[in-house]
């Protein structure tokens, strides 16, 4: 063969037709040559194909036989059929058409083959000197690799080919350029080029559901060309390009299953279980490839990406954290049961079993606790009525549910234009997912939600927003939906956490429908959303519904939370440096969450506050006296898991056996650690209630623990989970059937020993394949011909007898029936444990309360902390008080006293910049908040009143998205304080009026301060750089006192500048200068700039002083003229006035 040869690619881009002077043949991709050959290491009498049953056995229980290919259209062979076809051809060529054949023959080594030359264009020239040798008669000499020669029946399975003697061309080597072309073609086929764009994105008329489910249809004649280098490959499948005109895309049964589920859940990323992998399809595969760093490639009509089953929890958690809604589609049947069922030739049945989003991720799907480690994981539903105008108020309702703990918060309120009330609630709740109506809310509400979501996400934890269309109903319809939901347990007479299920359900029904009108609308929308996750039962427990605003708690608004750094600092928005960081010494997760609630909602009822702080004092005394029950409690809480989440997962029926066992074990420790009369050893009512509730769970826990096989539960073994299966007799029956099969296999082994004359023969297990009969290679030919060879090594061959294959299939069937029965029994047991939800949750609440009290006791035991004394009036009397956070980051802290009462209710604080004014006023507010939490405070002594609110106006920032300047925002916040503050409020205003001109700012600050002193009469700390405000001290003597932060001024060597030493001590009197140039010097501004600023400052001060002097002189002259007018006669005064003008009078004076 010589001369030019031409090669063309078929429609799939794989098969090459090489035309030469006498022959034509086809060549497929490189993988076509990696086929196994028959084993010729030992002589065989005859070789036969193994039975289909043996092949099915080796595939595993999840093997997809024909799922991922078309059953009714010609195409490439399935992966299982191609190797068998080649093995049959090899056996025929070698003369062995009958007998036994190996199932797992070793693959040929690639080193035995010469590289194949790949022709890529019709015009490519054949390299010289590489002609194909021909034998006599025009046939090609037979070689040792002839068994692996490409054949039509092996790889085409129905495709028309040309030539009966088609063979591939062998060449001795390939150039680097040829290898690069092969690599580029490979990448073009199996990778996604994100830069490529579909030149014609419109779908064909015959495409299937492309517009409805958002799936990009591939293989419709308008495929996406992928380019690598200078080559491009059309990725359109062969079926779509055959014939002329547009044709409907062809999907495999698996792809059709995916599209059907996707059509019903278009907003979910679907993770589909396929055998021992989970797969993504279509656009979901591209998203998964991008977010999970896995490979997406074209397979049949769609892109796909996959990962092994044991990585499911890792990838699902990551996708959910990124804000995606993820659905898991699982196989609902196994291979063993499917093989004996009616649908054995149909694809596996798959259903969407789980859906996860950020606020609803409560499952332990990976056998370990992978739920989000965040203290606030609320799912917040917001609805708004009216408020569509630019400056209108809005009527807003919210319902927030924390699915990990079962807490539900609701509220409805009228909000102003700035949406301050909504901001306050969102700052307290800090949701991870927000549900909104399908139609946008008002502009201000949408802007606020977006800004707060960005703020919450500044620490890397994004907030997901879900918009529900048609979920927010009118009040009548929403009430009807809730009525049906809460009536269901009554109709079913099914307990919902208590033995008297019907009575309890009726009580819950009445409580739910007594909620405010707009809250009911929100609750119905939240119910509809939770139904798709199977978590709606948490809304039945209305006992745990709490109103956000309560008469028993102080609500700290959003400005106060930010300005005082209650939950996070203002530098990097982390917890370190906040009040929560100072007070949090809890040991349990549920204790941390409860402490955060205490800090965000201080007590305002004096009896409740006194009980809490007395409990902290008794714990401190008990530690000093060696109280054994307190010491035992400290040791116990360090060993407890997150019981609050575990109890909720048990209530949902979604906990693993190991988690259930650990939870019951923890409750057993709690119930058995304290005697029943331990509560009598305490004086505090809170401690009495805690220690009285703990032993109450002991009997229930011991009953549940007695039913569990602990060793099996630790390994998540549901089959051996129960120590007593009398309640579920079907489990025992299936176990007996399995034992019978095992006995029959052992009896069969005795027969095999006699048949092959090996008395010591035993079954072996290799690579997970059980009941293998191992025979030396030199005796393999003596075994019966109906035995199926499974594998072999150089020394031994391994077989299955037909009886073993049959019994293994029977055993697998019984085993899967046993697994199903055990799953059913386990689910029933979890429901039984979940029926004690309220009892267990009460114990968890007691432990959480004790954890918080121990944390506050740890704070109180620190040096310099004292127990505050509470008085009825609004009072703050503190000796040597300190800032709780600042003293932890500085080496020495200057203490300050505080003296504020109703009679001495206002401090006007001035002083140099960086003198400590802001730290002082924050210190006062934090001491008040810590006291009303029930904590000791950083001071030598403290006498505190009960405040109903703490308001702050600090810092300077604008709101560009809301169209507000810095000054506008200052005034708006001040207006909100004036509207909500009372005479029992603590108000902090820092440098009000600095955002505008000096005259306007001074006037506004003057009027505001006067209003708080004269009208509101609240306890007020007012920081300013306007000394003129000090004149109000004369107008309100006693009520207002002028103070400043002390400093020491020294002159520098050049006598043109001053150095300031801050003393950080509050002192009576006004500071008439702010010494801003000193701060500029500390900020390392250039010396030339400082010198210019110093000259200008001196010039302005001289000018102001001159104006003051002139004004004073004019005033005196006016007084003198008035005196003369009253003393002398009119003609004498006219003469004097004509002789003496104002200027002369000025000069004379």
Automatic annotation (TrEMBL):
Limits of the DNA mismatch repair proteins mutS family domain: 985-1001
Regions of compositional bias (Acidic residues) in chain numbering: 199-215
Main location: nucleus
Gene Ontology cellular component terms for the protein in this record: nucleus
Composition-biased stretches (Polar residues): 20-41, 229-238
One Pfam family named in its UniProt record: MutS_IV
GO molecular function: ATP binding; ATP-dependent DNA damage sensor activity; mismatched DNA binding
Keyword DNA repair: yes
InterPro entries: DNA_mismatch_repair_MutS-lik_N, DNA_mismatch_repair_MutS_C, DNA_mismatch_repair_MutS_clamp, DNA_mismatch_repair_MutS_core, DNA_mismatch_repair_MutS_N, DNA_mismatch_repair_MutS_sf, DNA_mmatch_repair_MutS_con_dom, MutS
Keywords tagged on the record: ATP-binding, DNA damage, DNA repair, DNA-binding, Nucleotide-binding, Nucleus
UniProt feature coiled coil, ranges: none
Bias type Basic and acidic residues, positions: 50-70
Example GO BP: mitotic recombination
Subunit structure, interactors included: Heterodimer consisting of MSH2-MSH3 (MutS beta). Forms a ternary complex with MutL alpha (MLH1-PMS1).
Functional description taken from the UniProt entry: Component of the post-replicative DNA mismatch repair system (MMR).
Family membership: Belongs to the DNA mismatch repair MutS family. MSH3 subfamily.
Record's protein name: DNA mismatch repair protein MSH3
